[in-house]
Specification:
The chain is mainly α and 111 residues long. It has one domain. 52% of the residues lie in helices and 10% in strands. It has 2 helices and 3 strands, in the order E-E-H-E-H. This is Zinc ribbon domain-containing protein.
């Protein structure tokens, strides 16, 4: 399916095509006079098909930034965890090699 081109009458908002109504699932439309997003279904049809929903642009932006910060911190934590596991695995491999060398040495002595 080809990407759709934005053909709105006004300039594109930050979360255009990204914010959706929790109830009806339709896109939220940015309202410049309210500095936030409203349900597109409610805006077009009123209470017949959906209820009034509003998301303040600044609050939405902060929520998204907080989620991104949390996700990026989780990625950093995962990278640290992988590095720690690899170090421990290398130590275990070295211990096992030392044990094997000791067994081979003892066998060479006839034990």
């Amino acid at each position: 399916m080809a990407d759709r081109i934005y053909r709105g009458r006004e300039k594109k908002s930050l979360f255009a095509r990204l914010a959706f109504c929790e109830d009806c699932g339709k896109g939220m439309n940015y309202k410049y006079d309210r500095k936030g997003y409203v349900c597109g279904t409610y805006q077009k049809t009123g209470v017949e098909k959906c209820t009034s929903h509003f998301i303040n642009q600044i609050e939405l932006k902060e929520a998204v930034l907080n989620d991104l910060r949390r996700m990026s911190s989780n990625v950093l934590d995962q990278n640290l965890l992988v590095q720690t596991i690899l170090k421990r695995a290398n130590v275990k491999v070295m211990d096992d090699k030392n044990d094997l060398n000791e067994v081979n040495f003892m066998e060479g002595l006839g034990f």
